[in-house]
Amino acid sequence: MANVVLRLVTKRFGKVVAVDAVDLSVADGELVVVVGPSGCGKTTTLRLIAGLEDVTAGQIVIQDREVQKLPPHRRNLAMVSQNASLYPHLTVYGNLAFGLKMRGLATKMREKIQDVAQMLGIDELLDRRPDQLSGGEQQRVALGCAILCKADVFLLDEPLSDLDKRLRREMCGELLELHRRLGTTMIYVTHDQEEAMLLADRMVVMQQGRLEQIGTPAEIYDQPRNRFVADFVGEPKINLLKGRLEYGKNGVVLFQNQDLQLTLPRFLAERLGKSKPSDVMVGIRPAGVCLTDVVSPDLLALQGNAHVSNVRFLGPDQLLSIQCGKTAITSVVSRHIAVESGQNRNFFIAPESLHVFDRRTEEALGRD
Ligand code: ATP
Q: Using a 6 Å cutoff on CB, does residue 39 contact ligand 1?
């Protein structure tokens, strides 16, 4: 087990800055998930830690030892990538044995392999070759190789991306259980924010080589640092509405655009009242756009002519498309709420689901 620290790590490929001055500290035994859109530098970050790419600048420290100049095999890491990269001509047993022999760990090999195979539920598959396994089974074998080699850190690069959504969910559960049992430090890369939230102790959100925010899934979801993070995390996507803030009497702050008005909650109004920004973008999580007959004083009334243009069934919830003039808003409400497409209804906003961003810098405003 080990901690991993990146200090101002940069990687350039010619003119492309794949990783841009990334500072990251992963604690011993932590499961950190790096997430972001395609091309944001996730895989390169992992390959830099593994030693498969050289850093252009910065330091990488593993278990208090600077490693950026060490070759991959001297870093004691195991990398499991998208394509499970098993030896096709060897059986599952042969694949699991290979790493042990290479590392001189072959004593009691059969027992060690049997134990790990049992832990991963692949003990019935030891005589098969990789092409006789499903994608999920191949991933388990690759994980088995990593476990047997007693790597200090597991680097997992989209290991579940070839699997269908249901199997991915299942494998996420298994991976969490495995992490709990082994306690090994893991750095996991995915472009899927849902998978990231399911797995992560902490999430790292990247964009264009930069680390945009790091925090627990709840911190990232509830307190996004900027518009990009708010927009990237959460399904369905956050509603983003352009508009202006007006500052009235008694500290009242009103958000308005051409179609609607919203009085901001007191805590936000107080904080914004200090710098008085005007051109903003308001973000509202769909689950915070409420339709209720019992109006709680905590809820903020959405003033405007809200028309329900579409209702879709999501199992426990319903997905509503609301049209307020030209402004489109998405809402997720319980399926038990009676609502039909074509109705004009009053909507309310839960204050904690509301975020205000500076329109120019896109940074979150009025947060701690
Ligand atoms: P994906 O989710 O699509 O795998 P990613 O977030 O893992 O993307 P990287 O593969 O790290 O992104 O790539 C980051 C940037 O660096 C991209 O613009 C990519 O084109 C570029 N890049 C990666 N490897 C190389 C390379 N060997 N030579 C030149 N450019 C590269």
A: yes
